[in-house]
Structure formats: C-alpha cells, structure tokens
Request: fold
Amino acid sequence: EIVLTQSPGTLSLSPGERATLSCRASQSVSSSYLAWYQQKPGQAPRLLIYGASSRATGIPDRFSGSGSGTDFTLTISRLEPEDFAVYSCQQYGSSPITFGQGTRLEIK
Amino acid sequence: QVQLQESGPGPVKPSETLSLTCTVSGGSISSYSWNWIRQPPGKGLEWVGYIYNSGSTNYNPSLKSRVTVSLDTSKNQFSLKLSSVTAADTAVYYCARMTYDSGYYYFDYWGQGTLVTVSS
Reply:
C-alpha cells in the first residue's frame, strides 16, 4: 500500500498570502494518478487538481499542482477567504487507492 | 449535471450489516467506476471499494473480507454492504464516481455523504 504523508498538518496564513502544501508518497507514484481535493466542514471533497498538475473544471488559476515521483506540491498563489479548508492528496498508482491525512489551512 | 445521493436505514448495531445505496442522476451508470469512500469523524478519507460497469470489483484489503459492492443499472444505483460492523466503522460514507480520462484517474463527482453510527 502506498502511504501518502502530507505536511504540514496545519498551516496558518492570512488572505493574500501564498500557501504551499506537500504530499510525500512512500513509493513512486505516476503523476497521472495523483490528485488533490478541497474539503470544507460538512461538505464532500471537491476535485481541484488531477494528473498532479491539471486543474479541474472551474478551479481558479491561483491553484496549481506540481511534482513527480514521491514528492508533490499544491500551491495556492494568493489566498482568498473561501480557500481556508482541508486539502487532501490521493493516488491510484497502485491498489488500494489511498489518501493523505490532510492539511488544514486556517486563517491566521 | 451528474448528481449522487446516498441513502440508508440509519444507525447500525455492532455485529450487524451496514447497507447503503447511491442513486446516480443526470448521467448513465453504465460507464466509469463507482466507489465508496468513508471518513471517520475528525479523520482522513479511506477508500472502501469500487465496482465497474462491467461488474468487476476491487476492495480495500483492510476491509475486503467484510465488503460487497453491487450495481443495479436498471435503477442507476450501486450499493455497499459492510458486515460485522464495530464502532470503528462509524464514519461519513460517501459515494463517488471515478473517471478515467486520457490516462488520468480522479474522483470527479461525490455524494453529500451520510453519517453511519455503529452503536448498541
């Protein structure tokens, strides 16, 4: 099983700042099979990024993904108030499908 | 617009079987893979299993002995059964569609989730 470890666990930033979230895999994952999701309290996750760097439909361009192999990054260039949420990475490079434990992005 | 909606009977007692159904509207169930994902309170997401429109299934090894996912294309529904539940199975259960597109796999549509509590 591929374990995804996200860091930091909690990130405290202010609107307008840049956020950098990390997802590290226990073994190499094809970039095609790495996705990022945003989840707000009481809501289902929402797809942000697939294929490590492709934005999903309707996702603002302040969200970007990068990385390969075992190290992947989600960057939010300039935080808006609605961006404060939990972010999770997910892989399907090999079964079982696994998720990271999440990074909570909170308002400083 | 594709929509997914979970439904189920409510609380479940320990050792009983948890049963949930996901109804898909706005699109055909005769493509894609149809998944169950759960999230214990305050914790991360855990993939439970999926079924393809062909009927083939894949389950999380940690749950495999207790899980069955089935498909009813005539009703545009798929279902989850999880047997011998314990308090550790208490979670919000989501149904979700996984899309395969040009070499990419991702969950693009999710239900709103339903909290299942295992308690005597």
About this structure: The interface with chain B takes residues 1, 32-33, 35, 37, 43-47, 50-51, 54, 56, 88, 90, 92, 95-102 of chain A (CB under 8 Å). Chain A has no helices and ten strands. The mean pLDDT of chain A is 96.
